[in-house]
Amino acid sequence: MYHLILYRSFVSFFLILMTTLTFSLLSYFLLVSPIRYNSYMTTHLFVRSCYTLLDSTIRIPELVSTAKKYGYQSVALTDHHVMHGVARFLHECKKEGIHPIIGLEVDVFYHEQKVPFLLLAKNNKGYTNLMKLSSILCDEREYATYEELLQYCEHNFLIVYGEGGYFDAELISEDRTGITQKLAQMKSELPSFDIAISYEETSLWRSKNALLKSVSKCTRNSDSCCK
Questions:
Q1: How far is CA 118 from the centre of its chain?
Q2: DSSP string for residues in the chain
Q3: Dihedral angle, C-alpha 50, 54, 56, 58, nearest 10 °
Q4: What is the pTM of this model?
Q5: How far is it, in rounded angstroms, from Cα 157 to Cα 190?
Q6: What is the overall mean pLDDT for the chain?
Q7: Which of 10, 55, 92, 136 is most buried, by the most CB atoms less than 10 A from its CB?
Q8: Distance between CA 215 and CA 178 in Å, rounded?
Q9: Whole-number Cα distances in Å, 119 to 64, 128, 130, 133, 195
Q10: Residue 119: closest CA among 151, 97, 93, 91
Q11: Model pLDDT for residues 84-116, shown as the tens digit of each residue
């Protein structure tokens, strides 16, 4: 019990410290610095760093400096469940003159499945919500609940995955009706969201992306299934 209390106290202290250190930098970017996007450059919104253990070896200084080298005007950090690298990320972005996009990849228990979602902060309130959600997931939790997603996705962009997401099986089997039904279900249960297509360049996933774009457009324009 003593060790558990000590651990929780350390987590609370760490979160307060991280929030204090990062809010000044975050305010500079979100409230002061204007966003100027290069119309010829796409910003990658799904980026894991070495803080996502066993999934990435990308170090934050190299991430930001490489983005600067190739002409990016903005760069994202979207680690899985953790936000330990945000302070360093903001520092490096300020040093390189690049606009930071702060996000979080979250696994959510949704309709008896563990489903990944991507959240991107719109402002300081969104960032604060991401910190709260991350602190929940760092407390020996494998996933957030559906109710927690709804609570903390406010002031954030919500992105639903195609590949690896809620309708991944239907997408692979090209079950157009199944994709349409699940998309309609998500539209009725979630706030406004965007759908991510696969970054894979194989012919297989190019065809799946085309299918997903077609179904998404149809679902957006009609409540009925597209044949």
A1: 3
A2: -HHHHHHHHHHHHHHHHHHHHHHHHHHIIIIISPP---TT-PPP-----TTSTTT----HHHHHHHHHHTT-SEEEE--BS--TTHHHHHHHHHHHT-EEEEEEEEEEEETTEEEEEEEEESSHHHHHHHHHHHHHHTTT-S-EEHHHHHHH-TTEEEEEESTTSTTHHHHHTT-HHHHHHHHHHHHHHSSS-EEEPP---SHHHHHHHHHHHHHHHHHHH-SSPP-
A3: 30
A4: 0.79
A5: 12
A6: 84
A7: 92
A8: 10
A9: 20, 12, 8, 10, 12
A10: 151
A11: 999 999 999 999 999 999 999 999 999 999 999
Q: How many CB atoms lie within 10 A of CB 171?
A: 26
Structure tokens at 17: 């410290």
Polymer length of the chain: 227
Residue type at 3 in one-letter notation: H
Amino acid at position 64, single letter: V
Residue 66 has which token pair?
A: 């490489």
Distance CA 89, CA 22 (A): 10
Inter-residue contact 152 to 130 (CB < 8 Å): yes
